[in-house]
């Protein structure tokens, strides 16, 4: 019997956003598996890596604005082999990884890319003298803030003398909003790290009436005893939502031969489950219109679908698809709303398993932790969690890719 998973090559990548000073999206870094847990035996690593980049890039670019740049990590051999020339120079930034040494051969390879119009980023710089030869070629210099202890004096010392080189400073591993704001005054214009997914607690923050209404609708949609008639009532009460549903369902990508002209027909065509999930995604995306929250909403919708897929793939009896979906959907609400998760959950009549999962306990929390590791490219931890679930890397890659496409279609439908 043929092992279906053996027919798939693991190539999917995680994607981490890079923000500008105004918190709008500048682009994304693609985080590759770097050959770990390849399914197939491949004799030529350079050819394999080229295929990985090509496949991963096509997925990463789908649904992104044309202005969004993509940072792609390059180890030494990939640079020497000229793999970067397979990428579009107007969209891709070649990122020289921290362990690459500036030998004459490597510098020549990087210079050829730069002369051909590629932007060059140098990774994990914190003042190392041995990396200075790269700086004259760099368009973007990534400063490792944690490696400098987030110490303002050490950061200033690391970037001293760089101003005349004309490269942009990208602060990576920015862990909180206070550091983010402080770095903006030191010449940094690009930012990357976990600050965007950690809540900044605002004193006296309360949910507005509209936010509370949307949360209550989300909670209602996630309930196991949800009345199908209620979905039509919600849509009929909001012309904007009805219009967006029609636009989504009538899109060319949905593959319908005839236009849908009624709410009942739209819901019937989608199916109750997908209609509920679409509405949940739209409500979440509308929770906060800020650029950063828009990225978080997309991530939350993708997590929800990813967890639902993991649940179905494992076939665990303890796994309830509705519960894991809403857990993923709600998992970033604390950041989006600037509130503690405990305070948000206190307003919602959610199932106990969801509450435990969002508070760091139980099987749902384990699935959320897997999603968190995958999103950030923590491949060793990801592999351990995949093994515990009895799944393969290729299965999880496929589910992650499918969840991203689904999330972009759902959120993009608005």
UniProtKB/TrEMBL annotation:
InterPro entries to which the protein is assigned, alphabetical: dGMP_Pdiesterase_EAL/HD-GYP, EAL_dom, EAL_sf, HDOD, RNase_Y/CdgJ
Coiled coil (residue ranges): none
Pfam families (UniProt xref): EAL, HDOD
Domain HDOD as annotated: residue spans: 207-395
Domain EAL: residue ranges: 1-213
Record-linked SUPFAM superfamilies: EAL domain-like, HD-domain/PDEase-like
PANTHER family assigned to the protein according to its UniProt record, in alphabetical order: CYCLIC DI-GMP PHOSPHODIESTERASE CDGJ, PTHR33525
Protein name (Swiss-Prot/TrEMBL): EAL domain protein
Origin species: Pseudodesulfovibrio aespoeensis (strain ATCC 700646 / DSM 10631 / Aspo-2)
